[in-house]
Amino acid sequence: MRASSLAIAILLLVPHVVAAQGAGRPAEVRVVFVRDGVFTSPIDSAWNSVPETVHALLAQMINPPHGGGSVSNVSVRATHDGDEIAIRLQWDDPTADRGVGVNTFRDAAAIGFPVGRPTVAPSPFMGDAEHPVVIWQWAADFDADAEGKSRFGHRYPHSEGVWIFPQDMSVRRKVRGWRGAEPVIEYIARGFGTLTPRIDASIEGSSDYRDGRWSVVLRRKLMTSKEEDPVFIPGEATSLILAIWNGGTEEVNGRKSVTYQWIPAKFDGIGSTTVKSDIGSSGASK
Q1: Where are the domains of the chain?
Q2: Residue 237, beta-bridge partner list
Q3: Digit-coded pLDDT (tens) for 23-47
Q4: Domain 3-143+183-271 falls under CATH 2.60.40.1190
Q5: Rounded distance, CA 77 to CA 48, Å?
């Protein structure tokens, strides 16, 4: 079944999804061009100058295990500098859940993109065999930059599980990769049950939790050498899907809050921006 036919068939099974999200196209995410480099800190005040879109989330009811829906919406802001893209997600959560155990679940977030530049939109439900989807998933328990609150950082404050001198920060990122604790894991999917991690992932992430709200930044080079990767070109468009897991309400795997439609995203061309270096002292753009 073609991706478009599959999407229509699934939506017919869950008509409440269309009614809840509206029949119209979701608000377009603008990926703003900035001259001084993308914003890597989730609490950088420069994000306030970037247009925000807020996207409704619903419980995942397409494939078992069904459930989730405790997070009602997520805010998206995005920038690029011609070399990298950075996307910030923000959502409300009354607790920061960083642990994993028998009855303990972590907070997490994911962004999905179609591979390449498909002429037919993939199914927004994990893609399909002919139209794969790449997914970036940030996980709170793997976020080793969370001020020592991660499970590894708490137990091994200097080495995070593998001994290195605290001063030797140049290899810290490699060490985190060796022990499988990067805050962001990249997957490729070709339909339900096909989610496969990529060992050569190149996604970086950072997070902040305060006042009952998560702020998470995911970033990557615009261009990569991998064939099966999203294509990000200044001045052109792509699309994305979103998912949030609330560990405090036992959301894990298929139990999550999701978007049911592809969200359009348009990259600014290189040359015009109204943020960071192009904002004068008076607040007017130069």
Answers
A1: 3-143+183-271
A2: 266
A3: 467 899 999 999 889 999 999 999 9
A4: yes
A5: 9
